[in-house]
Amino acid sequence: MKWLHKDLLDVSQLSQSEVMAIFETAGRFQELQERPVKKVPTLKGRSVILFFAEPSTRTKTSFDVAGKRLSADTFSLAKSSSSLTKGETLKDTALTLQAMAPDAIVIRHWSSGAARFLADRLDCPIINAGDGRHAHPTQALLDSFTLHQDWGDLGGKTVLILGDVAHSRVARSNVILLNKLGAKVRVCAPRTLLPPAVNQWPVEVYSDLTEASKGVDAIMCLRLQLERQQDGLLPDLREYARTYGLGERHVDVANPDVKIMHPGPMNRGVEISSDLADCADSLVLDQVSSGVVVRMALLFLYMTRKGEE
Ligand code: CP
């Protein structure tokens, strides 16, 4: 299969068979993680710029690790050390990066649409590592890959997305991808933390967490995005934690094998209890491991435009 896409802006661009091709490619790279020398020459001589205008631990590090394991040269640019702080526009920054002839740019930016802005102007592949509230496609891909590793087919499974849906690009991309893979999706949040158009999303909407948790196969907690809150949306953090923090009583009414997920970084004791974050059914660290191989698969597919034979 030849990989046809130049850029990854959101999961909505991908067909179900393309998602499966990403999973198959990531699955092959998993074997590499077990070796003492975790490096192959696949992208030797290619360069990837990691342009992160917002903070990141998991996404940035795992793209860096992914690139290096494929022998690509990776170069990091953070907002704090870039000329964005001197008022340079995103367009000028992008054109400057293009002039250095990278083979791909991974971008995280606070503006929804920033990845598309670059994709429309630059010749190299642009991979969206999170743009504003809009999308976080690589997170959704690694989340579904993690579940796929456990369950196989996601068809017929029910996944609850819990928390600050309004501000969450993770939720938006996951809703699209989980539906594409045949899962049923519920969202649960206080009214103020649901997006205004949530009734048009392909989800069941709940405001009561116990009701929302009944019979679900996985619960994805979202980080409460304290840095994106506007006045009045979140009256009291302790009240939020009491009403919408995931605890044992919610897991008790879910499927007995319910999987607990969180994209990180976690506010322990706010959106999830510390015990649940670390419990045997928690996939939180599996998600991080999946992030490396899924991002290896994406760099391979987008930078070579080749799929598996
Ligand atoms: N899940 C996620 O995007 O984490 P980082 O912000 O640490 O990259």
Task: Characterise the protein shown here.
It is a single chain. With 309 residues, this protein is of the alpha/beta class. It has two domains: 11-135 and 290-303, Aspartate/ornithine carbamoyltransferase (Rossmann fold, 3-Layer(aba) Sandwich), CATH 3.40.50.1370; 137-287, 3-Layer(aba) Sandwich (Rossmann fold). It has eleven helices and nine strands. Bound molecules: phosphoric acid mono(formamide)ester. Residues 56-59, 130, 139, 263-265 line the site of phosphoric acid mono(formamide)ester (CP). Residues 56-59, 130, 139, 263-265 line the site of phosphoric acid mono(formamide)ester.
Strand portion: 5-15%
Shape: globular
Derived structural class: alpha/beta
Write out the CATH superfamily name of the largest domain.
Aspartate/ornithine carbamoyltransferase
CATH architecture of the largest domain: 3-Layer(aba) Sandwich
With helices defined by DSSP (H or I, 4 residues minimum), what is the helix count?
11
Q: In angstroms, what separates the terminal alpha carbons?
A: 6 Å
- What is the CATH topology descriptor of the largest domain? Rossmann fold
Give the overall pLDDT as a whole number: 94
